[in-house]
Every structure is written in C-alpha cells, then in structure tokens.
Amino acid sequence: MNLKESPTSATAETAAPIVSVRDACCTLGGRKVLDNVSLDVMRGQVVVLIGPSGAGKTTLLRSLNHLERVDSGTILIDGLPIGHRDVTGAKLVGTTELARRRSEIGFVFQHFNLFPHMTAAENVWNGPVRVLGTPKDEARRNALALLDRVGLADKAESRPSQLSGGQQQRVAIARALAMRPKVMLFDEPTSALDVEMVGEVLTVMRELARDHMTMIAVTHEMRFAREVADRIVVMDAGRIIEDAPPEQLFGNPQHERTKTFLSTIA
Ligand SMILES: Nc1ncnc2c1ncn2[C@@H]1O[C@H](COP(=O)(O)OP(=O)(O)OP(=O)(O)O)[C@@H](O)[C@H]1O
Ligand SMILES: [Mg+2]
Questions:
Q1: Which element (helix H / strand E) includes 89?
Q2: What is the pLDDT along the chain (266 residues), one digit of tens a residue?
Q3: Cβ pair 91, 85 in contact under 8 A
C-alpha cells in the first residue's frame, strides 16, 4: 500500500512540474550517457529511479543540479533553467546565481560528503549562512531543529568521524533540508551503509515523503519503492524505458529489459 495521500492533496495540485527535463542528451567520455531523456516531476511526487549499472541514473541526477552539463535539451527547476540565464540555453548563469539555484535542489550522495572538520550542526548551518545569507543565530536554531527531526538532537556537536554511517547520512539529509530545497535528490543513499543502519535512513526518507517533499531517489530498496514511490522510472542505456506506478511496474512490467533488471534484484 502506498503511504502517501492521493495526488489531490494540497501540495500536489499545482499543474506545472517542479522538475522538467526535455530531450536531455549528455555525452561523457565519447558515450551518449543520456539519450533524449524527458521527465516531469510534479510537486510533492516521489519518483524512484532504477536500472542497471551504467544506465545513466547518477548522470541524470547530476544534470538536474548542473553538476553535469547536458549537450542539448532543457532542464527546468520550478520553471527556471538550472544552469542557464534563460530557456534558450545561450548563456550560463554566474557562479553566485548558480549556487543560489542549486540551493533549491538538495542532493544526498551515497558517501555523505560531510565536512570532516565541522560538527554535525556546523555542517547543517554552514550552507544557509554562506549561500543564503541567513543570520548565524537563525541558521543554528534551524540546524538544531533539523537534527532533531532526523533523530540526532544529541549529536549536534559531534564530528562526522564520531558518527556511524547511518547518523552521517541523516546529518547529510538535514544539511540538504537546511537550504529549504524545492526538490530532494538521493543517489543510493543507503548503499554504503551497514544493513542495520539502512532502516533509520529510509525512515527519515519516508517521513519526508509524508510531508510532501518532492523527491527523486535512486535506490535498490524495492520495499521502500513500493511503499513510498508514486512512480518508478526505469533507465537503461541512457534512456527512460518505463515509467509507471509501483504496483503496475512491479506487477506487470512492459519492457523486457525491465523484467530482466527486476529479476536481478529480486
Ligand atoms: N565523467 C565521466 N566520464 C566518462 N564516462 C562517464 C563519466 N561519468 C559517467 N560515465 C559513464 O556514463 C555511464 C552512466 O554512468 P552513471 O554513473 O550515470 O550510471 P548509473 O546508472 O548511475 O550506474 P550505477 O548504478 O553503477 O551507479 C557509464 O557508462 C559511466 O561509465
Ligand atoms: Mg549511479
């Protein structure tokens, strides 16, 4: 059963997609890694992205954040091209504006990427102070509230090296949330964790979904996907080959390659 409310809930009724990818192509090392990818994600939706290794899942997430630049096509976040001044794509935005636009997109990586010399709280309030100009006191208060939200109120003064992998990943989620993002991207957020820590991270992600955070998550956690995702998007060889609600995707996959992939992770 899907944990989320129906798409008629208050946050989901806005017609314009919050993420809109049109005909995106990206070549890396001479290979077309994204091959005419188009994807719309509506406000409040949870999309789980799956597919075999090398399919282009990470590249797609990175391109949403302009960590990877597409060769052609458009990527709009809440109507604005992520790395360009306007939809023609003719001119790149400056670094300050890019940082501001990127701040609207939370990115949670497999390997946490926390600053090792900062405490958990500093990791969380650093971005809002530096990029958004939030006053330090306010940013600190928000950071403590967010650490509480991910169950780490008592770890605010700990450094990453003093935290378990699951705790570090929860700090990383709090850090991303501190920027008040419009969408959260997760790239295999539990893959580097010992099995006993996977649940605590998935619990935080479930709660975000319940709070109607728009999310795109690459994950192999198929139980999570069934419960939380509105849509499962399957990528293969740089293309989106299938896009369906979980019950349909798992119960009646249309594409041979989807069937093959699902059989490898079952
Ligand atoms: N910087 C790069 N230079 C050259 N090739 C790259 C680069 N980054 C990714 N690739 C290639 O692009 C393809 C897609 O990679 P990507 O990391 O997006 O796949 P993925 O679906 O996330 O795979 P995985 O499940 O293994 O994480 C792969 O063939 C990869 O080798
Ligand atoms: Mg990847």
A1: none
A2: 455 544 444 444 457 899 999 999 999 999 999 999 999 999 999 999 999 999 999 999 999 998 999 999 999 999 988 877 777 767 777 888 888 888 899 999 999 999 999 999 999 999 999 999 999 999 999 999 999 999 999 999 999 999 999 999 999 999 999 999 999 999 999 999 999 999 999 999 999 999 999 999 999 999 999 999 999 999 999 999 999 999 999 999 999 999 999 999 86
A3: yes
Q: What whole-number distance in Å separates Cα of residue 22 and Cα of residue 38?
A: 4
Q: How far apart are CA 104 and CA 125, in angstroms?
A: 15
Q: Which amino acid makes up residue 101? A: R
Structure tokens given for 265: 């992770």
Task: Write down all domains in the chain, each with its CATH number in brackets.
Answer: 10-104+181-265 (3.40.50.300), 116-180 (no CATH)
- Ligand 2 center from residue 134 Cα (angstroms): 33
Ligand 1 and 29: CB distance under 6 A:
yes
Among 58, 68, 236, name the best residue to mutate to test ligand 1's pocket (greatest count of ligand atoms within 8 A of Cβ).
58
